[in-house]
Amino acid sequence: MPFALIGFMLAVWYENKGFETKLFVCVLLCMIFARSAAMAFNRLIDARFDALNPRTATREIPAGIIGKNQAALFITLNCLLFITTTWFINKTCFYLSPLALFIILFYSYTKRFTALCHFVLGVGLALAPIGAYLAVTNYFSVIPILFSFIVFTWVAGFDILYALQDEDFDKGNQLHSVPAALGRKGGIYLSTIVHIITASLTLSVGWVASFHYVYWIGATVFIALLIYQHILIKPNDISKINMAFATVNGIAGIVFALFTVWAIYLT
Question: Please, what is the angle between helix 2-9 and helix 249-266, to 10°?
Fold first, then answer.
């Protein structure tokens, strides 16, 4: 959602397209419907594995709180609502909506055959700034694509760290992930490299777009929180993964989005 906001405001102010409340609401709804469908789909097809994993056994489907048919109906409704909403945005978004849904839903299958599943998740979330920008302009541009690369590497990097918790479970159940393939140290090392790329892209976007100096404040905080995330997680101690994954990343995304939008307005 934060990067979708960046993509939208980038088109409105940086490209001088003008703000439309109806369009803004439609973009927000698309983000909500797509994310809801993707999360529910992941829970549905992973229900068997979630039931076997002590960390996830209390999730709604394996715990019996929500039935599989209910989950399937919820997914279908959100997919239909997503596609319907794109119709009210523009034809380009409408025609591309099935592809967007395929990518974000397909991610849930990838852990069954490739350790690159984290990067597929990154691709899915990276659609946010491009999609929001496309909703306003109806064409692609370099700057929102660069923001998408930031999302791609940022998400892939922290998802690798999150998967450290399930290294042994994944190995025992023939599931694929970077930690299962490279081990804890290898996973942390690769995540670090990916996040170094994230930091480099963050600085590059500010330079290419010539944003107001406010952007650099947000970029500095964002990169600092990336570094802090890696300080929290060590090869011999991954007890702070939830704090790094949920809290630190949540703050990082929101702060970066707010400062970037502010900078776009001032540029």
Answer: 10
